[in-house]
Amino acid sequence: MSYRKKISTLLLIPSLLLLSPMSQAVTAGGIVGITQAWPANTGYDKFSFFQQIMNDGGPKSHYYWANQFYYGKNEVGYIGLQNRSNNVHAYNYSIWEAKGWKSGNCSYFSHEGKGVQCQLEFPWKVGRQYKLDVIKKGNLVTGIVTDMMDGTSNTIGVIEVEDATGKLNGSIGFVEEYSQENAQLSSCYVMGTQSSVFLNPKGNDSIEAKQGTYTYGKCNDPYVVQAACNGKACINTVGNLGGVPSPYAPRVPIVNDKDLQAETISSVLDKKQLVVIYTGDYYWTPNIFFPKPDKNKWKSIFVDHRAGYGTSIHINGNVTQINKGQQLMYLSDGTQWNIVQTK
Hints:
This protein is mostly beta strands. The protein contains two helices and 24 strands. The chain starts with 14 loop residues before the first helix and ends with a strand.
């Protein structure tokens, strides 16, 4: 997604949250991308995007289901639905390099570029299909969301852009989980369960774009994220594994009946945010020595003990015993390793 720009989602998190100390580890960011191919050398006065959110991730999630559009010479904006956690749903509509706005709850932004962002908190419904229109008339670009079940519409904003810009000419879609600061996730394996459908968008109410999809980003694990398309729509899902890493998570190698040294764990953890230590009857270690927490701030170690013998974990200057069937997730805050809830 080389053209993609993004307004910092810090703008969307209450200021009280930003003042809280960080206590988690992962901002998942972009998860699913949707390509949208329009006929070549064609411009439009209107793009209509169609979205249906089947599962919004729940009250602890921060999801954005977005449609990014282009006009003129790679001028960029986006429009989409958001779950802002705590049962707050919203519409978000933004354009980079915009001059101002004529209506809507809008403001200027200056982080990661500059432009105008318009927002409307609105209780859109899970399971319903919504049409998101971007209409460009001269230097005014209007964002409108319509509930396809009851026909009600809401104008998010009318944004003013430069006079010389041209027609709408391209678009993509994406899904991201943008929990930040104190709301960050302990790992990619506790993202709220979501599923959504992006139907093929239309230009000027008649020309239909073709779509494709892919998964990407720091949480791109096939046990967590899936995406597929048919001729008319693309669907994607994010599964909550309850904190238990998938078989694709990076493992720390163990030599049977030998201590697992901190250096061995560090060699894997240096390049990853989370590593897994699996033990079993033929890959058992009597002692696990954790690396120093200060060099692994906001990184995680998951211990899944399946061996019949117990193992001693040497951590924070203490020793703790783990027995068969126990699973423990540890997160470094830079000072010590802390046990975190996996669900």
